[in-house]
Amino acid sequence: MNIVIAGGTGFIGKRLTDLFVQEGHSVFILTRNASNKLEQPSIQYVEWLKSDAKPEQELPPIDAIVNLAGESIGSGRWTAKRKKAILESRIQSTRAIVDLISKLPTKPNVLLNASAIGYYGNSNHHTFTEESEPTEENFLSNVVKQWEKEAQEASQFRLRVVYCRLGVVLSAEEGALTRMLLPYRLFAGGPLGSGNQWLSWIHIDDVVRMFHFALLHPSISGAFNLTSPSPTQMNEFGKTLGSVLKRPHYLPAPSFALKALLGEMSTLVLDGQKVLPEKAISQNYSYLFPALQPALQDLLQNR
Known about the structure:
single chain, Rossmann fold, seven-stranded parallel beta sheet, two-stranded parallel ribbon, 11 helices, 38% helix, globular, Cell division inhibitor, cell cycle, cell division
């Protein structure tokens, strides 16, 4: 297949590009500056989001588009300026993808648009599947709703649209896990807030395989939860992390301290939701890491 990726040089995009190439696909990465990129066999860079860029003229017939573009939600305090950037980067890039689709003479079969389980809101009591509606309105749920609404505009071109609602992605290189490691390695790990909040996690290897799975299964459309089948509460997650690292889990980080340190962004560690990947399970997706301890052992031991 010929596959376009927006955000192909990011955290997930790099891994997904590697998998697509290993599977024999040709990848076209959308970028603001193609001149400083070294093209490789099966990987080409195509400029977009510039006034003079015409990516539709540089692309061959495309089978699928993956949109991963957007400002990171976890790399800085949520000031008003940063919240605006988080929302607008997702809206603008998705709108640009839909515009690109409108200009392609041959339409792709599917748009896999990144999304997030933040859609469902926060709860310690509810269990969410792809059929669930949000339980509350907050910044993240509003961002995701607007993001998915923009992606849905692509359906007017009669292609399949999938909202890949990502859980907390576990990776040894980037993301939430790398921030959790330091206190444990300093023998100062412990519960964050109450410890009762749910963490719907997923190993990075399953993330990229689930994108590929959605690409190959035409029966998957609309919401698609990219989480493991075994979400865990934060206190249990910390105990398991401490066990894998052979470090204690005893020193709590109280909610008020995290709120003072992180502001509104503290919701990423103090609040959560229990999300199940009902569609992946019903479609017989085979997880590499369905359970937490083997996932953490794979990521952290012998590294």
